[in-house]
Amino acid sequence: MTSPLQQDAANLDALLERAKVESLAHLNALGTLPTKGNYDASPARNQLPELGLGTLRAFDEFNERLRNVIVASSGPRYWGYVIGGTTPASIVGDWLATAFDQCSFATAGQGDISANIELETIQFLRQLFNLPDTFLGGFVSGATMSNFTCLSVARQWAGQQLGADIANEGMVPGITVLSAEPHASAVKSLAMLGFGRNNVTRIKYLDGNREAMDVRDLEAKLQALNGQPAILISSAGTVNTVDFDDMVAIAELKKKYSFWWHVDGAFGGFAACSPAYQHLVAGWEQADSLTIDCHKWLNVPYDSAIFLMQTKHSKLHIETLQPLNSPYLGDLLTNINYQTLVPESSRRLRALPAWFSLMAYGKEGYQTIVETNIRLAQTFGAMLSGSGSFELLAPVRLNTVCFSLTNAEPERVKSFLTALNETGLVFMTPTVYQGRAGIRAAFVNWRTTDADLIVVYGEMVGLVG
Ligand SMILES: *Cc1c(COP(=O)(O)O)cnc(C)c1O
């Protein structure tokens, strides 16, 4: 009797072939598969099998029970949240990351070379975003963990200003966190880091339908702190309306006041890929730390994001994230060990999907993806605002359309969106903007085309009646 595991091992070729065939069937159908799931139709299995089924029979059960509830979230008409797709090269890289199953810690020496691949990929990304090599970077599971990583080092910096070593001795009072429109994940990071969710001092917005901070209000608040340390969380792309804080003006304030400047550019940072939009992030190279998501606009599979941190903070960085309090900081930066730079200890070779995609499509390929998505958002915005039934809640500044039904009660906006999502043709998410019920459509998928806009718009006009 051979065990299911031994049988599988002997049959690996057929198993991977099956995985390829099923993957292809999914990817080829992304344009027609529904964007909504139907989990009620699919009862859960309650019992762990006593004897294993083997992979092929597990596959059968997966197809029968689970596959039909998997939605086309990486397809061309999934416009809810900010959900990226997957480039062919990134799928290849992700597959290989699994097959090679490296535990990505340290640069070459006695270990494997996965950290070298990571550093090379970070170098490519710095070049994609026109950022200087004074930034040290690494891969984490998403922008939430990137914000967490950056803000943990910001906390260590602020503690140092107060004569405290927070990573070793614990939290101290007296640190102010400033932001106009922090992403929920940054607020969550503050909860995890001991600042507390409620302890963000809000900076005023600019006047006139803006979510960007009024930098004069920021300056007034910095002045009032009288030298007490502050951490500024700024936005390169807010979620509702993709507004950008004025990075040039913030960089100017850095010369006068002492504060840690973090930029959350999870998806808006990709404005840097386009000569026509890179002015939106001008000045961000002066920031202390940056967050950029890769599973959004880079179109690599989950889970993938990077942090970028100025190397002048590397000592604080390692003090914060090294596993043990090791006074030896000597050559940790020449022989990078990611265990001292990210929250995780063991990680997969998370850089490989991005490496493949950046190699395969280059700077030009990403400029095209970004500019195409921006053009689609603008076209969709123009279709909606020209229709009479819909109105934009904010101008289309980059890749997201924030809109509502004209003269509609919140309940009607909600029921319209439910009906629209129920078609399974498109998925959008609700929002509230300036007190009004709204809907967001975000364009970050390389597969989306003008034909998708026409299909969705036709459906919307039919539903609105
Ligand atoms: C999506 C997003 C995040 C959180 O990213 P995850 O990858 O979901 O962890 C943080 N900030 C901004 C601006 C985002 O758009």
Protein described:
By secondary structure, the chain is an alpha/beta fold. Helix content is 40%, strand content 12%. It has helices spanning 4-10, 12-28, 55-66, 88-100, 114-128, 143-161, 166-169, 184-192, 215-225, 247-256, 314-321, 352-385, 410-422, 450-464; strands at residues 135-140, 176-179, 200-202, 230-235, 259-264, 289-293, 305-310, 390-392, 400-405, 429-433, 436-442. The strands form 2 sheets. A 7-stranded mixed beta sheet has the order 1-7-6-5-4-2-3, with helices on both faces. A 4-stranded antiparallel beta sheet has the order 8-9-11-10. It is globular. The termini are far apart. The structure holds pyridoxal-5'-phosphate. Residues 82, 142-144, 183, 185, 237, 239, 264, 266-267, 293, 305 line the site of pyridoxal-5'-phosphate. One of its GO terms (biological process) is carboxylic acid metabolic process.
Brief rundown of the structure:
The protein is of the alpha/beta class and 465 residues long. It has helices at residues 4-10, 12-28, 55-66, 88-100, 114-128, 143-161, 166-169, 184-192, 215-225, 247-256, 314-321, 352-385, 410-422, 450-464, and strands spanning 135-140, 176-179, 200-202, 230-235, 259-264, 289-293, 305-310, 390-392, 400-405, 429-433, 436-442.
Features:
465 residues, Aspartate Aminotransferase, domain 1, 40% helix, alpha/beta, 3 domains, Aspartate Aminotransferase, domain 2, 4-stranded antiparallel sheet
Determine and state the CATH class of the largest domain.
Alpha Beta
Individual helix count: 14
CATH topology description of the largest domain: Aspartate Aminotransferase, domain 2
- Which ligands accompany this protein? pyridoxal-5'-phosphate
Structural class: alpha/beta
Per DSSP, what share of the residues sits in E-state strands of 2 or more residues?
5-15%
Mean pLDDT: 95
Total beta strands: 11
Give the biggest sheet.
7 strands, mixed
Strand order, sheet with most strands: 1-7-6-5-4-2-3
Helix-strand sequence: HHHHHEHHEHEHEHEEEHHEEHEEH
Q: Which percent bin holds the helix content? A: 40-55%
Cα separation of the termini: 65 Å
Return the domain count. Answer: 3
Q: Which CATH architecture of the largest domain?
A: 3-Layer(aba) Sandwich
In terms of per-residue confidence, which ranges show pLDDT below 50 for 5 or more consecutive residues?
none
